[in-house]
Amino acid sequence: MLKGTGPALVTPFKNDLSVDYDALERVLEYVIKGGVDFLVALGTTAETATLSHDERHEVYRFIKKVNNKRLPLVVGFGGNNTAEVIEHINKADFEDVNAILSVVPYYNKPNQEGLYRHFMALAEVSPVPIILYNVPGRTGVNMDAETTLRLASASDKFIGIKEASGDLDQVKNILKNAPKDFLVLSGEDGLINEIASLGGHGVISVLANAFPKRTVALTNKSIKNAQEAKSLQEDFTDLINLLFIEGNPAGVKAVLNQKGLIENVLRLPLCPVSDETFKKISVVMDEQ
User: Fold this and answer.
1) Can you give the CATH number for the domain in which 140 is found?
2) In angstroms, rounded to a whole number, what is the distance separating the alpha carbons of residues 162 and 201?
3) Which of 10, 72, 166, 194 could form a disulfide with 38 if both were Cys (CB 3.0 to 4.6 A apart)?
4) What SS3 class is residue 40?
5) Could you give the residue numbers annotated as active site?
6) SS3 of 3, please?
């Protein structure tokens, strides 16, 4: 159910920095019509760290309403205070939510045992399955393949991992030794084809916000090891580089703005891409 392409949805803002629900609905309809397989709310790309507790719940309730059970929905619940994450899970409404996406605790830099105990504590209270999210470039600590495999074997609550370490040997280890139905999803748009070619099951994607149909085509052909998948991945190289050169989601918000879907507004400490990058994105988009 959670294989294929899942956009890590942006949170559009108005010029007064309030959440732009009209724009969020436009983005939702755009990606759903684009053929994505599932939706991911309140991930990194959603600027979740800048949303208040009440805003987070309102955003994913709105996404549930607009989605209206059309696609599976994954919602981000994570943090570096285990007790606080547990509290948020206990108070949340999980109706029509199919899984949690939970990031490796950031800033604290726990050891592997600390990571294991953190996620096991979440598994005890979560009413829905959990997709682990390993992104050492943001969290400051890598969850080793051994810890991922230990969790996957310890509880059937853990159904997969969004792997954004960039370490293909680590990905191979997980794919080789994980339980049969454990999902390995790419956390990097630039590695969709490579991870799928190793046996991966899809992607949680920034790119799919702006180019859902093409991202779905790339992912599906990569999973099938189709001959043209590599060239489809290469076609996105310049654009993917521009999406992340000044941070995420600044790049993809610039693209969505140029497509007329959202305002080009972010909340501090993030800010829009520079004029130079905005122009470069325009040029690359014209070439797509």
Assistant:
1) 3.20.20.70
2) 10
3) 72
4) strand
5) 133, 162
6) coil
φ and ψ at residue 205, rounded to 5 degrees? -120, 140
> Residue 286: what pLDDT?
81
pLDDT of residue 201: 98
Whether the bond into 269 is cis, omega within 30 of 0: yes
Residue 177 lies in a domain: yes
3-state secondary structure of 136: helix
Positions of the chain with pLDDT lower than 50, given as ranges: none
In terms of residue numbers, what domain contains 109? 4-230
Instruction: DSSP letter for 8, please.
Output: B
The span from the CA of 220 to the CA of 141, in Å, is 31
Residue 95 in any domain: the answer is yes
Q: What angle do CA 107, 108, 110 make, to 5 degrees?
A: 125
Q: Are 118 and 82 in contact (CB under 8 A)?
A: yes
In a domain, 259, yes or no: no
DSSP classification of residue 178: S
The predicted structure's pLDDT at residue 77: 97
Tokens found for residue 20: 């732009």
Q: Report percent pLDDT > 90 for the chain.
A: 98
Check: CB of residue 53 under 8 Å from CB of residue 84.
no
* Residue pair 134/143 in contact by the 8 Å Cβ criterion: yes
How many structural domains are present in the chain? 1
pLDDT of residue 174: 98
- Nearest one of 102, 69, 95, 64 to 1, comparing CA atoms: 69
With respect to residue 194, please indicate whether it lies within any of the assigned structural domains: yes
pLDDT of residue 246: 97
